[in-house]
Specification:
Blueprint: E1 8-11, H1 15-26, E2 36-39, H2 43-51, E3 55-57, H3 60-66, E4 70-73, H4 80-88, E5 96-99, H5 106-112, E6 118-122, E7 132-138, H6 144-155, E8 158-162, H7 168-176, H8 178-195, H9 200-221, H10 225-232, H11 238-248, H12 251-269, H13 274-279
Parallel strand pairs: 1-2, 1-4, 2-3, 4-5, 5-6, 7-8
Antiparallel strand pairs: 6-7
Helix pairs in contact: 7-12, 8-9
């Protein structure tokens, strides 16, 4: 049985926040959608949240007053400091502050929220279907109970891991941005099926299920993907012919470069010096 929390607040009700909110409800981390409140500047986002049964408000102050267990900052990086001021304006020190704002460091959060317990986390959109991949780092004042809250909230919607903060940018480039890469691959795989004569509907279903099944094999067998690939590639067969074409197209190199580019962009958002990005991280 999944552990429950009393109430959670989201400042920002965009795509990522909505994915996590939906996941918390579907996995019964909260008793009802009404145990979650969100604020946003855009009325359309609030209307969609209200339709799902979540409490909504245009005031960040009301989110802070309502949330007992956690306040999740889910806004663009350039809005975080404004949000921090709104949080400080309310005397709620029971809730841990969890930021999913890309590139915003724990140091910046603690500077904007002096004396408060903060956590930095990078989730991804598959949280919406309970298959997310999230990594987090605790701030200097965060305690064991805060770790429990984070793992209950985000562990209920997928894989959750604690990592040193300097690795959060790499997490952003891999699992944070990764779903987009995989969606592109599924689309391309389906296009190949259509080119070979399958219907669009069949090709898309087969492509998505193939990716899902292959991922489950890696996770459940804990076998290196290179070994699993070799098991499919019989000598002179169809699969090795296809792999040969992927290699010619630079498939692996392009994927690595995509992760590196997204990681570098995350660092730039976090104001990491360009010389450090180039020299220390070789990006």
């Amino acid at each position: 049985m999944t552990a429950k929390v009393q109430s959670v607040g989201f400042i920002g009700a965009g795509m990522m926040a909505s994915a996590v909110m939906e996941g918390l409800v579907s996995k019964n981390v909260v008793d009802t959608p009404g145990s979650i409140i969100c604020s946003d500047l855009f009325k359309e986002a609030l209307e969609k949240a209200a339709e799902r049964g979540f409490k909504t408000t245009e005031l960040n102050r009301e989110v802070c007053e309502f949330a007992v267990d956690a306040i999740i900052i889910a806004v663009k990086p350039n809005a975080v400091q404004t949000v921090c001021r709104d949080i400080l304006a309310v005397e709620n020190k029971t809730a841990v502050i969890i930021s999913i704002a890309a590139g915003v460091t724990l140091e910046e959060l603690e500077r904007g929220l002096p004396g408060r317990r903060v956590v930095r986390i990078m989730p991804n959109t598959p949280c919406q279907v309970g298959e997310g991949a999230s990594c987090y780092s605790l701030g200097t004042l965060a305690n064991t109970q805060d770790r429990v809250i984070v793992e209950v909230l985000f562990g209920a919607v997928g894989l959750i891991r604690e990592v040193p903060e300097h690795l959060i940018n790499a997490v952003t480039g891999l699992s944070g941005s990764g779903p987009a890469y995989v969606f592109m691959f599924i689309e391309a795989l389906a296009d190949g099926g259509v080119r070979a004569g399958l219907t669009r509907a069949d090709a898309l279903k087969l492509a998505a299920q193939t990716v899902k099944g292959a991922a489950e094999m890696v996770l459940k067998t804990e076998t290196h993907p290179g070994v699993l690939k070799d098991q499919v590639c019989s000598p002179g067969g169809t699969t090795i012919a296809g792999c040969d074409e992927l290699e010619k197209g630079g498939f692996r190199s392009a994927t690595i470069q995509a992760v590196k580019a997204a990681t570098k962009r995350s660092m730039q958002l976090g104001h990491v010096a360009e010389t450090d990005i180039t020299n220390k991280y070789n990006l």
